[in-house]
Structure formats: structure tokens, C-alpha cells
């Protein structure tokens, strides 16, 4: 993967420097105010690029940039803007004692699941082009599925650590590369005539899609946010089975075979188990170990649900207007 096309002055300046040797960023990059940071394509792409250096990186960026102090300072400015936007958009859930964390998570999820227009649309009415757009949006995370949450493993101990490892082992296919969820998703993309290369559609997704991935990396790369990362994972697992059942049904309605639907079918079964592990063995036990993290656990879950809700609203709003939910031209088939 190479650096994407800049989306504004922030990414233009950042990418120009990242293609050179690691060094200072002078003058410092100026970040925008946080009011629209959750869907600001320029800011979200800049933050995504900074985070990506901790994952698989870019072919045209020297790996020495990963821990370059000036870039970390720039990333911190971007993160403060992002955190401010999250704080404005996501009220802190009411404080509960550790023993109330599991039921509080269930309450947050139940409220979010009352609105599910996107998964219902994909099941019953979406055409093939809309489904392909949906898969392109999801590729930004699913082609590195589980990686952001894995950052928490060395930051936990005891029961919560064992619970997270149990979930992640399934996400990574139990040691079988072809069963890794990222590989199953790649097969879905290929079956839909899309490019399954890592980051192939980074230029095509809007800022709100990048925010879905960035909030995971924000929580994952900071030990201070380990409680929020656990809550984020729990929210994903607890809201996964029913939508994935709908996605699989929608693809079968459009003629998709087992190779195309396997990713979604796998999540119907696996995440029904994972949600119990994540809510009880990971989050509730983490809150019992460290009661000060109970609030962060619920906040992380609330952030996951709100960013997902904003992304789904964007997609459905564009489709109702008869427009693509992606950036630029209509989606082309893979060559």
C-alpha cells in the first residue's frame, strides 16, 4: 500500500514530509478544530496514516517514521482533536459499580439495535452495487480485523487477558491462515469482483468510515484507554450476530455463493459466543480487577456504537438520494 491522495492541506503537508527521510516536521502541522472531526476527511486520513505506520505501513514511507518524535507530537495533536470530537458526540454513560457493567453494556446495545436500517436494507432491498459499496467501506477495518484490539493483550492480566486471547484466537482462524477473518473477508471482496488488496480502497472511503477504524486504533495504542478498548470490542461482538445474518441473507438473495457469504455466516456463529466472553469474562472481570476502569469500559462501547451509527446514517442518506456513499466515481470492478 502506498500513501493515498491527500484530501486537504493537512494531509498534503503530512504526506509530502512522510515521503522524505524521517526528521522534524517544521513548521508544525496545524490541525482543524474538533467540531466536525468525526467526518472530516482530511483530519481522519491524516490520523489513519499516522496509525497505519504501527500496522503494515506504506511502501513509500520509511519505517523510521513510526517512532519519530515530531510525528508522534503531530499525532498527539490529531488525537486531541479526535478525542474532543468524541467527547462532544458521546456522553459518558452513567457510572455503575463493577458488578453492573455487563447489564449496562446490554442496555447500550439494546438501545443501538432499535435502529438497524442499514442491515435490513442490505438484507431485503439493496442491489449488488450497493452491497459492493458496503463491502468497500468495511474493507478498511476487516482486512486487518482484530489487529487494533490485540494491542490490549499485553496490557491485561489474569481472566480478562485469557478472555481476550480466546476471542482473538478465533479472529485469527485458530492458527489456520485461510480461516482468519481478514482472509474470509478478502474472499468476499474477490467474489464480488472487488480488489482484495490491503488498503486498495483507502482513497474511496469518506472520513466517517476512517473514523470507525481510527477510534479502535486510538484506544488500542494507548494503555490509558485499555478499558475503553475492551468496551469497544464488547460492543462490536454484541451487535454482530444479527446484522451478519442479514448481510449473508442479502448476499444469497443477490446470488452470492458460499465463498462470498462465508465471512458473514462465520460471524453469526462465532460472535454469538464472543459476545458472552467479551461482556462477562473480559469487561466485567476487568472492571472487577480495576474498578476505576468501569466508566471507560462503557464509554468505549458507547463510542463504538455512536461512530457506527454515524457511518450507517451517512451510507443510508446517500443511497436514499440515489448517490454513491463513496468518494469520487462509481465503483469499478477489479482488474
Automatic annotation (TrEMBL):
Q: Pfam families given for it?
A: Haem_oxygenas_2 (PF14518)
Molecular function terms from GO? oxidoreductase activity
InterPro entries of this UniProt entry?
Haem_Oase-like_multi-hlx, PqqC-like
Q: Which domain of life is it from?
A: Bacteria
**Alphabetical keyword list:** Oxidoreductase
Instruction: List the PANTHER family hit by this protein, alphabetically.
Output: 4-AMINOBENZOATE SYNTHASE, PQQC-LIKE PROTEIN
Question: Protein name, please?
Answer: Iron-containing redox enzyme family protein
| Protein's organism | Nonomuraea aridisoli
Amino acid at each position: 500500500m502506498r500513501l493515498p491522495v491527500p484530501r486537504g492541506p493537512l494531509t498534503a503537508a503530512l504526506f509530502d514530509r512522510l515521503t522524505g527521510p524521517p526528521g522534524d516536521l517544521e513548521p508544525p502541522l496545524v490541525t482543524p478544530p474538533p467540531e466536525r472531526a468525526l467526518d472530516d476527511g482530511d483530519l481522519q486520513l491524516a490520523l489513519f496514516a499516522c496509525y497505519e505506520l504501527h500496522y503494515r505501513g506504506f511502501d513509500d514511507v520509511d519505517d523510521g517514521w513510526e517512532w519519530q518524535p515530531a510525528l508522534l507530537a503531530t499525532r498527539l495533536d490529531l488525537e486531541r482533536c479526535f478525542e474532543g470530537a468524541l467527547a462532544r458526540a458521546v456522553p459518558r454513560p452513567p457510572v455503575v459499580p463493577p458488578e453492573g457493567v455487563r447489564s449496562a453494556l446490554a442496555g447500550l446495545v439494546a438501545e443501538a439495535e432499535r435502529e438497524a436500517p442499514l442491515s435490513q436494507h442490505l438484507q431485503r432491498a439493496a442491489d449488488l452495487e450497493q452491497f459492493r459499496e458496503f463491502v468497500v467501506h468495511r474493507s478498511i477495518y476487516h482486512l486487518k480485523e482484530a489487529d487494533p484490539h490485540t494491542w490490549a493483550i499485553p496490557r491485561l492480566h489474569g481472566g480478562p487477558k485469557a478472555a481476550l486471547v480466546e476471542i482473538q484466537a478465533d479472529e485469527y482462524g485458530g492458527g489456520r491462515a485461510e480461516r482468519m477473518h481478514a482472509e474470509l473477508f478478502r474472499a468476499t471482496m474477490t467474489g464480488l469482483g472487488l480488489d482484495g488488496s490491503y488498503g486498495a480502497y483507502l482513497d474511496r472511503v469518506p472520513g466517517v468510515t476512517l473514523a470507525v477504524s481510527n477510534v479502535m486504533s486510538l484506544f488500542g495504542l494507548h494503555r490509558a484507554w485499555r478499558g475503553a478498548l475492551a468496551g469497544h470490542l464488547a460492543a462490536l461482538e454484541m451487535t454482530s450476530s444479527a446484522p451478519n445474518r442479514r448481510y449473508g441473507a442479502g448476499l444469497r438473495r443477490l446470488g452470492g455463493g458460499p465463498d462470498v457469504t462465508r465471512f458473514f455466516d462465520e460471524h453469526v456463529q462465532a460472535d454469538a459466543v464472543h459476545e458472552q466472553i467479551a461482556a462477562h469474562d473480559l469487561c466485567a472481570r476487568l472492571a472487577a480487577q480495576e474498578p476505576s476502569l468501569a466508566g471507560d469500559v462503557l464509554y468505549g462501547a458507547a463510542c463504538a456504537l455512536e461512530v457506527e451509527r454515524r457511518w450507517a446514517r451517512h451510507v443510508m442518506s446517500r443511497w436514499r438520494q440515489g448517490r454513491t456513499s463513496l468518494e469520487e466515481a462509481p465503483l469499478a470492478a477489479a482488474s
